[in-house]
Specification:
This protein has 409 residues and is of the alpha/beta class. It has helices at residues 21-25, 100-108, 122-132, 147-153, 188-201, 219-229, 318-325, 338-346, 351-358, 395-399; strands at 89-94, 112-118, 136-138, 158-161, 208-214, 234-237, 247-252, 282-284, 307-309, 312-314. It has a domain at 89-364: Rossmann fold. The strands form two sheets. A seven-stranded mixed beta sheet has the order 3-2-1-4-5-7-6, covered by helices on one side. It has a three-stranded antiparallel beta sheet with strand order 8-9-10, with no helix packed on it. It is globular and about 60 Å long.
Amino acid sequence: MDDTPCHNGNRPSKSASDISPSDAMDMDTAGCSNGQSERTPKGCSVAQLRKRKRGNSMEDTPCQNDNKPSTSSESGCPVAQLEKRNRGIRVLSLFDGISSGFVALQKLGIPVEAYYYSEIDELGLRVAKKHFGDVSHSLGDIRSLTSMKLQCITPIDLVMGGSPCNELSRVNPYRLGLNDPRGSGALFYHFVRVLKELREVNHGTEIFWLFENVRNMNDSYLKEINKYLGKEPVLIDSRMFTAMKRERYFWSNIPGMELLQKNPQDSHPFQLQEFLEKHQNRKAKFSMLNTVTTQPNSLIINGSSPVLMNGQPDRMWMTELEALFGFPRSYTDVGLNDQQRQALLGRAWCVHVIEAILKPLVPLFQKNERPFLRCLPLLGKKIDSPKDSVDERPESSKNAPGLQRPGDQ
């Protein structure tokens, strides 16, 4: 099975008369509600909005470049020609899941000044709050994000998200598509709406954005998404970054993403054996996993378990799956059983891929000399200095010819 439903966060109830595309684009932007969590920005009137320093935007620092390269942002300037913003990045993550984007930013060493996220899945929220609860801010359901609320959190540098794909994937015979209000597919239009409204209140600051969804969708859905985002997608397979197949479409204005396009002639340099727990006499029977979904049988290859332990068939351990996805081992260990943990991973982004996409943004923000230290203690080693950092990557990923993991210098 190639693809199954992925992000379930922000799923509307079946009885909800959700939105149409026009509704999403023209939604009333009345003032903030009072039902925000205690960590969300305060303010229900313009008078209460905090004034924020205007970042270096394309309007402030125009790019003098008559021959616009293909690897450019929407304003026509390659990242190399944009001035540094001299601060940490400010992020809005929609359909946040387990905060894969935050993990990628940390591994890249990009300091996060503010991270706002929209997610309603309770298990996903439990994981995100464990790791980032003191530095991130929950905004609740994406459908509650009005223009006034968005103005409360500006400026924003990066908007990213992947709306639920279960109503789009061909694997789902009962899929409802993008426009049926009974399903979650229509939440895509809220991503479009939020991005549009945020641009209008973002104080001129350039917004980079990233949207992801399943590859295995009908052409009509793909054309609709292309129309509203104004771009063709790039197909990226995680097998170029880890020992796991995971083809996904990505739309973005971040320069250079097309260089990550899947090439059928590319070989994969990573082996499943390198991600298995060491010193446990565990042996991989295959070189890589198929697409990991929310279903336990997605870990079976040709009717066989992919791992032997002491010569006997054994299942993949959750810590090994976490490493394959690019998370620290035990990242999802928040009192959940293995099936719940796999379901969260099956809906998550592959962190290795997101690192590669976001890497061009590194020069624009202050370099964090101690990347990913918040999560490293999960690996069982206390980190006191950058020299003590634990490199969890397999040996082949450090030395593979012609390919570097995001973050390699």
